[in-house]
Amino acid sequence: MAETPARPPAPPSTPAPPRTSVLPRTSVLLRGRDVLRWDTAVGALLLVLLVCSFSLVDNFGNALNLSFLIGNTLPIALIALPMTMLVVSGEIDLSVGSTAGLAGAVMGRLWNAGMAIETIIPLCVLLGLACGLVNGLLVTRLGLPSLAVTIGTLAAYRGVAQIVLGADSVTDFPQQYLDFGSGRIGGTFVPQAAIPWAALLVIAVLVLHATPLGRSLFAVGACEEAARFAGVRVRRIKLALFAATGAVSALTGVFWALHYASARYDNATGLELSVIAAVLLGGIDFDGGKGTLFGAMAGVFLLGALQNVMSLVNVSAQSQTLITGLLLVISVLAPRVGRRVAAARSRRRAADPPAAKALATV
Amino acid sequence: MTVTTKPAPAAAHPGAAPSGGLLDRVLKVRELAILVVLVLMLVATQLDNSAFLSEQGIKDLLLNATILVLVAVGQSMVVITRNVDLSVGSVLGITAFAAGEFLRGGGDPLLAVLIAVAAGAGFGIVNGALVSLGQVPALVVTLGTLYVIRGLDSIWCGSRQITAADLPDGFAGFGHDGLGAIPYLALLTAAVLVAVASYLRSYRSGRDLYAQGSSPEAARLAGVPVRKRVLTAYVVCGALAGLAGALYLARFGNVDSGTGTGYELTVVSAVVVGGVAFTGGSGSVYGAALGALLLTSINSVLPSIGVSSVWVQAIDGILLLLAIAVDRVVALRVAAVLRKRAARTRSAHHG
Predict the structure, then answer these.
(1) Interface predicted TM-score (ipTM)
(2) In terms of CA atoms, which chain B residue is nearest residue A276?
(3) A209 belongs to a structural domain
(4) Domain assignment of residue A95, yes or no
(5) Residue A25 above 50 pLDDT?
């Protein structure tokens, strides 16, 4: 410590030039890596799949099929928005499918009780918000692992849905709402329900990728303690994320009931696994701190399109399950193996120059 | 610095002995608490409905629990190492079908059970290799293998199913009969339970699983062959899921492509209710077995006291939440007590 003040005058001028020359090189490197990033790769894969299906698979390109594809994928795409943020911040919510089912069940029960649908839907979303808050409070206040908590609430919310609606199914919702759930915009292939999804997508992208809040999510996911010391209000952010996830899940449950014109307690069973599979396939790191919404959406629509194409070419539902699982395993295994190969190569490269020099001198 | 650190180990030792005792006591109390809840529940039900604890009633309770206990024992080995295996439901389904197919072809029942166990262990090797060698998060990988194995199972089964008529009488009898009120399946399960518990308690490699779970980094630095141990845990978990599959076949005699779907969540609930922490390194298989017994008993108790079965799932979920919340609060309390005690001994030594 005592020696450093004596040095400064000379060094600053000399180390500065190399540093400036190094910087652009690393940024080029980063850009090169950007091109090969996992989410870009998934996006490219989705594009290839779409192009191939349009040209090779009969009936894929017609408006009806495309609207089916998007309509069936929308529930996953909706929940994937907040789920991406949760996973980026290092948490997970397995209760989304049950929250959606509960919202649908409550919607059916209240509709049977004669309430107006205009008041039912906001109530359902509020209920979802409350479900999310319960998850969030258990995780942030008690410090419980979100995996354990949300496995518990997965069973609990589904159980409550079963108590609320029993074995009934409610189908007689007002026609204009059912039309919204399954209708298309004009003569295009875009479902009407894609509009609220697109609005939520824009909000989510802005929040995650263009605000300090979004940056702090990555910070929390990368190292929670460091983020806390840096002044990020970790608990409050996580609580808000869980609440948002609950609200969006409930909204999805409402959409589900309208889209399939049936509110049952077992609606959206297993949806949580599809959402998580899609999000992870899109390159969101399960350990937190990494990922983009673009990747998540690419993952969602890749799985959705793949399933649609496989049904069109008569691949059985069982094989689809198998392929989903394989994709999921590959999507987590590949980046890690790739990273390790890259690390081994750079280590070899670091070891190489002296060897090359030695060869040259010989 | 050296002067101040020297007394610390000496001070820590007398402090550590009672604190270890306290921790032990708390952990034992944890299992005792489940036992008390279980007994209270059964006694209350018996008072309400005197036919509940008849010989057949006890037999049914034990039979219902055996399969879940077996899978929960395997699962707790994996959870103790701070991992999880979500594919157990799929493994149970496919091994049950495999054993059934073998028996339908006129195979030997014992060999069928061995085939199921071996197939389960094979899937365990795949899971364990992916987790320990690929170093990918266990939850994600086993979620993937859950799908893959279920897919394989469904392709293989198609719309076929195994019914009790396909099975040899001896095998189905093994699934129902027993010594008095105690079914053979329960005896087999108890043997497995005791074996795994003593392995985890008394063997070096068993203790390594706890070490790995409480701090993977420290375990690695201490020379624990981490990958091998994790692989072992997964293989045992898979093998027990396979055994459970064979027993499922013996008990219910009816297997199709959907057998065991969603079972993983029940198993994880049982393990966590039984006090095996998700964060690894704590809990015992006895606790997990009690948790499984509690969950399956609730399923029998509710109908017999006239509560509709629609409540079962909600109660299961709330019980799981309660269990982990209480665990956490108790752990915080214990940590506070230990800290206070450590501070007192330290100040006593300084004084």
Answers:
(1) 0.77
(2) B140
(3) yes
(4) yes
(5) no
